[in-house]
Amino acid sequence: MPQRHMQDEVYEQSINDAPGFWSAQADRLHWHRKPDRAIQRSTKTLKSGVTHDHWSWFPGGEISTTYNCVDRHVRNGNGGNTAIIWDSPVTGSKETYTYSQLLHEVETLAAVLREEGVSKGHVVLIYMPMIPAALFAMLAIARIGAIHAVVFGGFSPASLAQRMEASRPKAVMTASCGIEGNKDPLGYKQLIEEAIHASSFKPPKTVIWQRDQLRWDPVVKEDGQRNWQRLVKSARNRGLKAEAVPVKSADGLYIIYTSGTTGLPKGVVREAGGHAVGLNLSIRYLFGVHGPGDVMFTASDIGWVVGHSYIVYAPLFAGATTVLFEGKPIGTPDASTFWRIVEEHKVTTMFTAPTALRAIRRDDGDNDFFVERGGRGRLKTLRALFLAGERSEPSIVQMYQKLLTDYCARDAAVIDNWWSSESGSPISGLALSAAAVRGQVQGPRPLPIKPGSAGKAMPGFDVRVVDDDGREVNRGSMGNIVMAIPLAPTAFTTLWEDEERFYRGYLKRFNGKWIDTGDAGMVDKDGYISIMSRSDDIINVAAHRFSTGAIEQAVTSHPDIAEAAVVGIPDALKGHLPFAFVTLSSHHHQHPAVPDDRLFKEVQILVRAQIGAIAALGGMIQGKGMIPKTRSGKTLRRVLRELLENAARGDFERGVQVPSTIEDADVVNVAREKIEEYFKARGKNIHKSIESQSKL
Ligand code: AMP
Q1: Domain Acetyl-coenzyme A synthetase N-terminal spans what residues (predicted)?
Q2: CA nearest 610: which of 598, 599, 602?
Q3: What is the DSSP secondary structure assignment for residue 291, as one 8-state letter?
Q4: Backbone angles phi, psi at 579, to 5 degrees
Q5: Can you give the pTM of this predicted structure?
């Protein structure tokens, strides 16, 4: 029998002896008061009378996240190490902050907030671009025991108002403008004022970071508006500083609203104690980031959970350097930016979403930019490329794995990891540094990657695959991915002021037995987890369940296809047929919406071979800039499905529900035009059968 890998042993211990495992991890942090124990389990009774299992991490403990992320390193003599490198191609700026400088900024800003009436337990909403001040704000809020709610900068006033009403912030911290890619600066004044106008709850203060690119003018004092830099200057002149205020383990550190591919946003609460312990382990164990000398570049946004955890908190818990990037994978100025950053800042660990790599592949099909830098030996520092946010198709994983093997550090790996706002840190992945669990840096090589799989379960996440009745399915079979209670410490235990919705949204489906992740997929015989799609992205073809993700994978295995979104189109005979929207990988994208016969046939062959004849496509439309996405890179299949269903009924103009989180609303119009062109070219009866079905 082959020897078991350390990741498997660690995992088993975390599940079989959760108290012992997590107590040891808690000891690695500074507590203002040590917890009485690692975990306490109880039963919660809701107003409706429903009862369900509940758990609480590190009861009795008191902790300050900011102290652990900043003060601790300065006190340990590491104040001179670099904490933050800000790299902003959109403004042509770069700045560096050591841990000592960061402490100074944060303790002063925390004092300012206190003077402005914010104290322990209050919520402060952050609506900021990717600038250092945004990180100072998060850490300053946490420093005084308040709770931040970061809303992605650039969200519409309506979605901002929704989050204001839900979180009732004492203050809003914002900037005069955001800069999206190579577009003109986007003024925040109007957006914030409109949101406050629309919200029934009016935040008393708005603290504004003035940027030179576009100022907030005028700052209306009577409306509670304040100039951030002026407040800080005045506090500094008076020598004001705020000490770190500890909070109870179960107190909220932040609220994050989940991305809206479905319904109204949910306020996920992150608890201070569990977050600190879990994240401090994950950054070392999974990401192999241990401290000074390690440089993490997470190309995401502080508005998303990936940004909260791996731009801000985790690298700082470790005492490492984090790169804060204000730019885009392409267009700022081109598809070489990521690799320029790796070279220039000697990045050891990178994290991004596959959608960013696809964008780069579209602009730099042969990876010339990567190869050019790599060929000069400039990318040797890079040890790993972590991917999350959506499914990574094997082709993109394989392509980057080859590039990493050829040009980066020895054994460098592409690591797909699966998680959510709810989980706070990866639920699955492959530990780059399994020995970190024992405080060691050197250890065994990571488990081998399997492209298409998001790795194995991370400590504390008891992942299972069940059928619709909640019964576990055999290894290798598709099903609903759920988790047993308790979840690992970084994960939520409730929703912000909405216990009922927590139960309804996550526990009710399986009668309180499992927590529903909303994702579908499988676990193979070796324990590797594959996430194929959201459960609602499953399509039913002649009573066979197919994941749109799996079909997309088959479609994108065609070399001429850069990207695909597959949705179900109703069919009188089979219930549904898969229908593909594709973007070609050629530089000059063919114009017609109807692909040429050769391409369609070749794709069909791939789908038949990889999925089965029964999953053969009902149709395919090609187009550039046609696949709608949320700002966090998730394909909005529902929007395409609705457009398609309307078109099948001859109703091309009918409105569809577009979530406020959409990245570019114009894409929906492109999709609409392409669909209309397709139906007109193919004859309106092409999906006649659909019509009768969809009217049922
Ligand atoms: P969010 O809470 O906005 O971060 O979205 C979480 C969802 O993103 C998950 O429930 C999955 O549907 C999807 N997701 C995240 N990471 C992955 C991954 N590595 N593979 C497949 N899907 C992913």
Answers
A1: 8-69
A2: 602
A3: S
A4: -130, 130
A5: 0.87
* Rounded percentage of the chain residues whose pLDDT exceeds 90: 81
- Contacts (Cβ under 8 Å, ≥6 apart) of 557: 393, 394, 395, 606, 610
| DSSP alpha helix (H) spans, 217-336 | 228-237, 272-285, 305-307, 314-318
3-state helix, strand, coil in the chain (%, to 5): 35, 25, 40
Give the C-alpha separation, 467 to 474, whole Å: 10
Longest dimension (CA), the chain: 77
* CA-closest residue to ligand 1 atom 21: 391
pLDDT band at residue 110 under the 50/70/90 scheme: very high
| Contacts with 657 (C-beta within 8 Å, 6 or more apart), sequence order | 638, 639, 642
pLDDT at 684 over 70: no
Query: 478-527 pLDDT, tens per residue?
Result: 899 999 999 999 999 999 999 999 999 999 999 999 999 999 999 999 99
Nearest in space to 693 (alpha carbons), one of 569, 570, 539: 570
Distance 562 CA to ligand 1 centre (A): 21
Distance in Å, CA 418 to ligand 1 centroid: 6
Do 438 and 9 meet the contact criterion of CB atoms below 8 Å apart? no
Check pLDDT > 60 for residue 259: no
Confidence of residue 691 (pLDDT cuts 50, 70, 90): very low
Measured between alpha carbons, how far is 334 from 322 in angstroms, rounded to an integer? Answer: 22
Q: What is the pLDDT of residue 1?
A: 54
CA 391 to ligand 1 center in whole angstroms: 7
